[in-house]
From TrEMBL:
PANTHER family per record: GUANINE_HYPOXANTHINE PERMEASE PBUG, XANTHINE/URACIL PERMEASE C887.17-RELATED
Pfam families xref list: Xan_ur_permease
Spans traversing the lipid bilayer: 21-42, 48-67, 74-94, 100-118, 130-147, 167-186, 193-217, 242-264, 318-336, 374-401, 413-429
Keywords associated with the record: Cell membrane, Membrane, Transmembrane, Transmembrane helix, Transport
Family: Belongs to the nucleobase:cation symporter-2 (NCS2) (TC 2.A.40) family. Azg-like subfamily.
UniProt membrane topology term: Multi-pass membrane protein
Identification of the protein by name: NCS2 family permease
Key word Cell membrane present: yes
Chief place where the protein resides: membrane
Compartmental location: Cell membrane
Length: 430
């Protein structure tokens, strides 16, 4: 085993890799309960989604570790999860069964892109500033959802939105969660979100705001309500509305994983001089396979979690740490009764904090150039204001092409961007 994972070459050992794997798992364990909670709002059965999420994370992470030999963990992504629920199912009024078919379609395309040379073409086609804008916009969107779910921000007939009732015990519980997670992060805790959610649950049960669960461990729930639904509805994706959904899911998944891959690769010495990542193609294949499997099980697109850097920070250097994470995800299948205590007051603080972290890409945007700043701003601001990640991307990309054509930069725009602009224009017209 040490030879297969190259412990000696990577200057690591079994103990260090196990510690790194456990650290990564604890850092991202909140996703096991947060993902089903969000998808339940789209109409999916929460317990089935819990099982699908744990299995998709386990399979994807095991492939990442054993095949790609990369110290990255995979699980359904929070931004993708939010887009699926709030933009697609609620915003576009698309049934979750059809939306899951869109996830499967995006996973298949992702697999084909990762297995061919198209990956490099697409990465180069979309300007880095727009990638940063999309990431920041998703951060704002997720944070806004968290603020709304917590009751901190509420509807206001005069101003559209306003401050909620901060004397309401449920709202105060969510505020407590935000404060605790923030303090833990400031103190340097790698598992701040996980601990913050646990402390919020404990306080909620003590105050009677959250019901105490009747059990902690049980046999895994049934996956029958969601299993295979994506395959049965795959024919529903061939229309302009769903094609935009598939593209958005693909875009978010692809660049989220690619970005995390580069960040992790640079930390463990796998980033090459030309900017590529050693075993990067295998890592992307692992994510695409996990997305396909997860959609069949009944959950949204998987992606590489940036929380994996917490395991790397304590010494993880090889894929064995990911194998450890995958095994822990399999063990988590027996803790579904805990879903009853994961209320919106518990998940909202996590959404707010995760959203704030994702917004860090704002600093990377070149705000001094109008032809970049305006499309970037529209991409970012329209995501929360239209309650749609897809429409934010569409407006931003279309504006980018138009402004740069009039700027005289039309030769610098990649043909792929022109194609996307035409497709987005047709979408808005139709």
């Amino acid at each position: 085993m040490s030879n297969y994972f190259q412990f000696k070459e990577k200057q690591t050992n079994l103990k260090t890799e196990v510690i790194g794997g456990v650290t990564t798992f604890l850092t991202m364990a909140y996703a096991l309960f947060l993902i089903p909670s969000v998808l339940a709002q789209a109409g999916l059965p929460q317990e089935s989604v819990f099982l699908a999420t744990a299995l998709a994370a386990a399979v994807g992470t095991l492939i990442m570790g054993a095949f790609a030999k990369f110290p990255l963990a995979i699980a359904p992504g929070l931004g993708l999860n939010a887009f699926f629920t709030y933009s697609v199912c609620i915003g576009m009024n698309i049934p979750w069964q059809t939306a899951l078919a869109g996830v499967l379609a995006s996973g298949i395309i992702f697999f084909l892109i990762s297995a061919t040379g198209l990956r490099e073409i697409i990465i180069k086609a979309i300007p880095a500033n727009l990638k940063f804008a999309v990431s920041a916009g998703i951060g704002l969107f997720i944070a806004f959802i968290g603020l709304k779910n917590a009751g901190i921000v509420v509807a206001n007939p005069a101003t559209f939105v306003g401050l909620g009732d901060l004397t309401n015990p449920s709202v105060l519980l969510a505020v407590f969660g935000v404060i605790v997670i923030s303090i833990l992060m400031v103190r340097g805790s790698n598992i701040a979100i996980f601990i913050g959610m646990i402390l919020t649950v404990v306080i909620g049960m003590i105050t009677g705001l959250i019901e105490i669960p009747s059990a902690v461990i049980s046999m895994p729930p049934s996956m029958a309500p969601t299993f295979g639904v994506a395959v049965e509805n795959i024919g529903e994706v061939f229309n302009p509305q769903m094609l935009l959904v598939v593209f958005t899911l693909l875009f978010m998944d692809f660049f989220d994983t690619a970005g995390t891959l580069v960040a992790a690769g640079s930390k463990v010495g796998l980033l090459k001089k030309d900017g590529s990542v050693e075993n990067g193609s295998k890592a992307l294949l692992a994510d695409s396979v996990a997305t396909c499997i997860g959609s069949v099980f009944g959950t949204t697109n998987t992606t590489a979690y940036v929380e994996s850097l917490s395991g790397i920070s304590v010494g993880a250097r090889t894929g064995f740490s990911s194998v450890v994470v995958g095994i822990l995800f399999l063990l988590s299948l027996f803790f579904s009764p805990l879903l009853t205590v994961i209320t919106t007051q518990v998940t909202a603080p996590a959404l707010i904090i995760v959203g704030s972290l994702i917004c860090s890409t704002l600093k990377e945007i070149d705000w001094d150039k109008s032809e970049i700043a305006i499309p970037a701003f529209l991409t970012i601001i329209l995501m929360p204001l239209t309650y749609s990640i897809g429409e934010g991307i569409a407006c931003g990309f279309l504006t980018y092409v138009i402004l740069n054509v009039f700027k005289g930069n039309y030769k610098k725009i990649h043909p792929v961007m022109y194609c996307l602009a035409v497709l987005f224009l047709i979408y808005f017209i139709v």
